[in-house]
Amino acid sequence: MLTIERRVFLQSAAAAAFSTMMYPRAAWAAEEARGIVHYADEPECTWFDFAREIVAGIGSDIRVEPVTSDQFPRPARRPAYSVLSTERYERITSARPESWQEGLREYLSLRA
Question: Are 36 and 84 in contact (CB under 8 A)?
């Protein structure tokens, strides 16, 4: 089981890495980028996949276990499947989303 300190670290690392993934490096065509344009790195992943990759990336032996939404209650209800479509982003920029694994490795290397 994780200690509170380790949980806080993982949550902080995940939040920081996630926030860096939300800003693509591609140049935007300003006149077409009005309204909502979703961006998320590829491939899709669960929070479990993401946490497991963080733990592996920091070289830790912390065991990450998947839980169901019922086992991890949140204040607001969450949809069962909530992957953002990047179709509009790809159309505007003519670019495919980047790898979240590569972005995470880059982030962790900067933190080392």
Answer: no
